[in-house]
């Protein structure tokens, strides 16, 4: 039996979250609750811990202190239950340069438990959604940064995650790319989202909550 | 309101995905195997002229063969996790609902395959350079396969740790070589009678094969047991 999210339980709950790198505290005393299907916008200058927060929620980093619950799973103890239900779009596209876009997506689909015709159909659907179906068989090394970002977005939603963790999701995308991406990772997709951005105007209207992080590890919830 | 139950991708599916990705990338880029083969052949040439001998036998032949294969293998070990580190593969695998020991199994299999292909090319060249006949090559296959398994298990374990260091080209061999000494002693011990002048012999051959098998078993189990912790932040 898997973890169930009680009706009144938030999709995301942080209480006194702290993360240290050696003696340097990057996140200190973060607390918030985010409901299912809502968007949290995380703002802050470089080095304020925005990416660290995303990596903790993605189960890639362990918190140094405090309580973290995501989709009913307590981190880090129940991280294994959360994996496969989270989509991370980070600074790196997580794509192998020597494989084609389609081969990369097939690899990720297989890791996420999709296979065979179901995987191929899902990959084709997503490639068409970001207008990459004609370039999907080119090696990733030959693609522009914008095209890699489109592929990274398809990789991020390939397994239909419930929680999206998006670090500067618009980076390298042109206006058309942003519009196409919006259909997959925008608020209309109905997923709980944590969006990190330097551009508050771009995402503020979509966000139910805004978390402002200050340089030096302190956080101020807005 | 309820959420999806946790799911775990079948290990076999994840294993095949990682292994086929690695083999496809190697076939496409040829970043490891040609360098390993070129290193081995060049070393044989240097031994041939350096020792000024057209024929080797016994312990000297075994030493030349295994020293060359070991250092050629290091080239493959050093590159085993480079794509994972530089292109985000570690994160992709850590995000997936898989048993992380699958990564160890797939990488060790890929390294084993590289070593087997390397030996398919360079061991006949070794025989051509240094052996009077090819009679030893048949029984030598068992020694090669068991030693490859040990190098693959130990190499994968050490490479996964060293790849995160900026000094990985130094750190990998520095940690790996002492660990692999018992394997090399057993491999040369098993090969020595096979490469004896006058034809292959089998003195203590079975004992050395048992030592090789024990070494393989220990490091395969160790890798399976600790690999999950090595991938933690």
Written description of the protein model:
The complex is a heterodimer of chains A (222) and B (233). Chain A is an alpha/beta fold and 222 residues long. Chain A has a single domain (12-221), classed as Rossmann fold, CATH 3.40.50. Chain A is built from 7 helices and 10 strands. Chain A has helices spanning 50-57, 79-82, 101-111, 116-129, 145-157, 175-185, 200-203; strands spanning 12-21, 24-34, 39-43, 65-70, 73-75, 86-89, 163-167, 192-196, 209-213, 219-221. In chain A, helix 5 (145-157) runs parallel beside helix 6 (175-185). Chain A is globular. The mean pLDDT of chain A is 90. Chain B has one domain (28-230). In chain B, 78% of the residues lie in helices and 0% in strands. The two termini of chain B are 33 Å apart. Classes of the chains: A alpha/beta (222), B mainly alpha (233). The A-B interface holds A 1-7, 36, 58-62, 71-72, 80-86, 88, 90, 92-99, 103, 107-108, 110-113, 115, 162 and B 1-10, 13-14, 16-18, 21, 24-25, 28-29, 83, 87-89, 91-98, 232-233.
**E-strand count of chain B:** 0
Total count of helical runs of at least 4 residues of chain A: 7
CATH topology of chain A: Rossmann fold
Q: What Rg of chain B is obtained from the alpha carbons, in whole angstroms?
A: 19 Å
